[in-house]
Design goal:
11 strands, seven-stranded mixed beta sheet, about 0% helix
Length: about 120
């Protein structure tokens, strides 16, 4: 069992930066792939980034590649999403999620555990 709690969201101007954190409970965090998704009002939940259990492999949506960085600290049971050069279209509720394997990373149905989400709002 893995429980996830996101934090770090808030209001930021376009071009600014935010770092989201995802704190996990449970002893199996280090064996799970971690992902970040986001959902804007009226839109489906979309994949943002994922990182393998070791941290050696990462994967990003094209819309955030080069601007966002996913990382993790297994010793702290925490995953992060550093968001730079924020755009208005990055406004959404951001969720972290966990799964065992490294396949079809963009499919939210493949993630077993989810956090409650944290709001990120980018203003002009």
């Amino acid at each position: 069992q893995v429980q996830l709690v996101e934090s770090g969201g808030g209001l930021m101007q376009s071009g600014g930066s935010l770092r989201l954190s995802c704190a996990a409970s449970g002893r199996t965090f280090s064996t799970h792939t971690m992902g970040w998704f986001r959902q804007a009002p009226g839109k489906e939940r979309e994949f943002v980034a994922a990182i393998s259990w070791s941290g050696r492999n990462t994967n990003y949506a094209d819309s955030v590649k080069g601007r966002f960085t996913i990382s993790r600290e297994n010793a702290k049971n925490t995953a992060y999403l550093l968001m730079n050069s924020l755009k208005l279209e990055d406004t959404a509720v951001y969720y972290c999620a966990a799964r065992i394997d490294w396949r079809t990373l963009a499919d939210p149905l493949m993630y077993r555990y989810w956090g409650q989400g944290t709001q990120v709002t980018v203003s002009s």
